[in-house]
Specification:
Layout lengths: L1 H14 L21 E2 L7 E2 L17 H7 L1 E6 L12 E6 L4 E8 L4 H9 L4 E5 L2 E8 L7 E9 L2 E9 L8 H21 L1
Antiparallel strand pairs: 1-2, 3-4, 4-5, 5-9, 6-7, 7-8, 8-9
């Protein structure tokens, strides 16, 4: 008798905690607020300070005037979105006061960390925490130049904010380490703003 009661009790408890529609809140989430955790295709929950929908976000809006000064940025202007990053993706071109480096920020709307690990290769990614957000750093090779450094911030389920830095055209004094230093600094600043959105 006891063997039969346990499965029935477990089924009754689980039924009360699920929803027939994927992506809809369960009985325990009736606040309507944005989740701070999510999962990606069978992986463990992702902890974020705040899940932000990047579909409506202008990445240039993440750089405050104070951050612009502190980071030594000359400008942050809207760029041309790349079709590879999903419909509705947005871009921001970043230039530093010292023209040795340039950078961009992109909203990636066509897949999250799981897709990134498959396309870039998990062995080429270094896991980071950027202002409380899970993030991934990778170095990009570029024939004829120093290459670049990319930081992918896991901002929302299936969405990433890419912040990169690379040597300016013809700049022989740029280094990959210098590019990574700038990419991580900009990523840290914009992640703070992202968490406050």
């Amino acid at each position: 008798m006891r063997r039969l009661a346990v499965p029935f009790l477990l089924a009754a408890v689980l039924t009360g905690c699920s929803s027939p529609e994927p992506g809809k809140p369960s009985a325990g989430d009736q606040t309507g607020s944005a989740p701070t955790t999510g999962t990606s295709a069978g992986s463990a929950p992702v902890n974020r300070p705040k899940a932000v929908d990047l579909k409506t976000l202008d990445p240039c809006s993440l750089i405050t005037p104070g951050q612009k000064t502190a980071l030594g940025l000359k400008s942050a202007t809207a760029g041309t979105p790349l079709p590879d990053y999903g419909e509705g993706s947005k871009s921001c071109n970043v230039s530093f006061d010292v023209r040795t480096y340039l950078g961009t920020m992109h909203t990636l709307l066509n897949g999250g960390a799981d897709r990134l690990k498959k396309t870039v290769g998990e062995s080429k990614l270094t896991s980071l925490q950027v202002a409380g957000y899970p993030a991934y750093l990778t170095q990009r090779e570029s024939p004829g130049s120093v290459g670049g450094c990319e930081v992918y911030i896991d901002a929302n389920e299936g969405q990433l904010l890419l912040v990169d830095a690379f040597g300016g055209l013809g700049e022989t004094s740029a280094t990959t380490d210098g590019a990574c230093e700038r990419a991580k600094a900009v990523a840290g600043a914009v992640a703070v703003t992202l968490a406050a959105k």
